[in-house]
Amino acid sequence: MPIPEGLLRAGFMSEIEALFDEVDTEKKGIVDLSLDSQSRTLQAALDLDDDDYALLMSWITYFDKNEDGVFDKNELAELIAVFSFLSELQSTPRTNYKKIDVICDWLFQLIDCDKSGTIEFKEIKFLLSTLHKLTGKLELDFFDEIDTDGSGTIEFDEFKELIKGVFLPK
Ligand SMILES: [Ca+2]
Ligand SMILES: [Ca+2]
Predict the structure, then answer these.
(1) Which of 15, 33, 88, 150 has its CA 20 to 30 A from that of 23?
(2) Rounded to two decimals, what is the model's pTM?
């Protein structure tokens, strides 16, 4: 999915180019994160501790459908964009509605893998298990809590509340 215009800091794509070339140690035009050497290079290049790296990796299923850990440049850019956006939200004022909407909308579409317009439990299970570490809430309980109208699915507004609740500064 194309990364929304205007949200990326200047130079993001050239940073990705450089990062990709650094991690693509075998110069095959792909990054293979199932290789320890490439995975470790990526973690070091992004300067992430083990927890943050695990969070980044938990997004892999959304970019790497067959889960073989192999990425091209665009897929890697999207993966890292998600992570930058989530970190960026942590310093975004709650009144910056436009930015919050654009980021939430992009994430929502990304997570809604089957494009049904709603997020089902299976689609967000991985994120809830990651958030479990932050919030201590069990995945299913958490899902029911986010699904405030009890429809069994997460609609955009419910998703936005989740993102605001977890990532935006209090
Ligand atoms: Ca869906
Ligand atoms: Ca709902």
Answers:
(1) 88
(2) 0.82
Q: Identify the nearest ligand to the CA of 153 by its number.
A: 2
Closest ligand to C-alpha of residue 110 is: 1
Give distance in angstroms: CA of 80 to centre of ligand 2. 29
Q: What is the 3-state secondary structure (H, E, C) of the chain?
A: CCCCCCCCCCCHHHHHHHHHHHHCCCCCCCEECCCHHHHHHHHHHHCCCHHHHHHHHHCHHHHCCCCCCEECHHHHHHHHHHHHHHHHHCCCCCCCHHHHHHHHHHHHHHHCCCCCCCECHHHHHHHHHHHHHHHCCCHHHHHHHHCCCCCCCECHHHHHHHHHHHHCCC
CA of 58 to the centre of ligand 1 (A): 18
End of a domain among 64, 89, 114?
Answer: 89
Q: CATH no. for residue 130?
A: 1.10.238.10
Residue where a domain terminates, one of 89, 115, 141: 89
pLDDT tens for the 170 residues of the chain, in order: 778 777 777 888 888 899 999 999 889 999 998 899 999 999 999 898 988 888 778 777 677 767 778 888 888 888 888 888 888 888 899 999 999 999 999 999 989 988 999 999 998 988 888 788 778 889 999 999 999 999 999 999 999 999 999 889 88
Q: Which ligand is nearest to the CA of 118?
A: 1
Query: From ligand 1's centre to the CA of 75, what distance in Å?
Result: 21
